[in-house]
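Workshop exercise sheet. Pairs work together: one partner reads the sequence aloud, the other fills in the structure field after running the prediction. Swap roles for the next sheet.
Pair: D.N. / O.F.
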Amino acid sequence: MTARTFRTPAIILKRRDMGEADRLVTLLTPTYGKIEAIAKGARKPTGSKTGHVELYTRADVLISKGREIDVLAQAELVEPFLPLREDLMRGAYASYIVELLDRFTYSGEGATPGLFVLLNDTLTRLCQSDDIRRAVRYYELQLLDKMGFRPELQECVITHEMLLPIDQFFSYVDGGVVAPEGAPHTTGLISLPMPTLKVLRHLQRSTYTQINKTRIPDAVHTDVERVMIGYIRYVLESRLQTVDFIHRIQHLD
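Structure field:
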C-alpha cells in the first residue's frame, strides 16, 4: 500500500448519485475526520460496493487519493445498524444526529478527537435503547462540547455566581444559564425550570452508563428538548430539517 491509499473505519453520513452508476459519499472516519469520495459503480445491482455504502452504517473502506476527489476503492460492511432501517422513529433520530454532525463539521478539516466514537456509540444506542430520546439529548450535549459550544450550566453567565436551586433562565446569546438577578442585564431569555436544569447538568457531566440508570419524566424530556433544539438552532443559525420530520412522526402516534 502506498501513501496514495489508506484504509480506515468509516460511518456513511450522506450519499448522492453521480452519473449513471456512481455515488458521492460523505464519510466520518476516526483519523481523517469527514471526507468525501466517489464510490464508482455503487449503484449497479451487481457492483462490489452495492449494499456496503448504505446510510448510517459502519464499514471498513479503502480510500485512494485523487487529484480532485478521493475514490472509495473498497468497502466492506462491518455494522449495518439494522434497527435504524426497521423502525421509523429510530431511523429518524439517526438522520437527526447525522445531520447535526454534518452541520458542525467540514470535509477535509481533520478529525475532532472522540467524534467518531461518539457517533458510533450513539447509533448503537439508538438501536438498543428503550429511551432513544435520552441517547439523543446526551449526544447533543457531548457534540456541543467537542465542537466548542458547551453551554454553561453551573454558574450564571451574567453574574458568574453559582446558581441557587431555583428556577432559572437560559440565554442562547450568552450560551448558558442566567440567574433571576442577572435577567435584567440581557435579552432573549427563555424559562429554565430547575428539574430541566438538573437533567441537563447530569447529561453534560456524567457517563452514559450513569445516564442510562436515570429515569427522565416525559414532561422534563420535552422541556430539555425545547432548550437544546433552541440553542442548537441559534448556534447553527438555521433550522434542522430532521427536527420537523421527527415531530411529524410523533404526531402520527
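Discussion prompt: Residues 218-236 form the longest helix (19 residues). What would you look at next?
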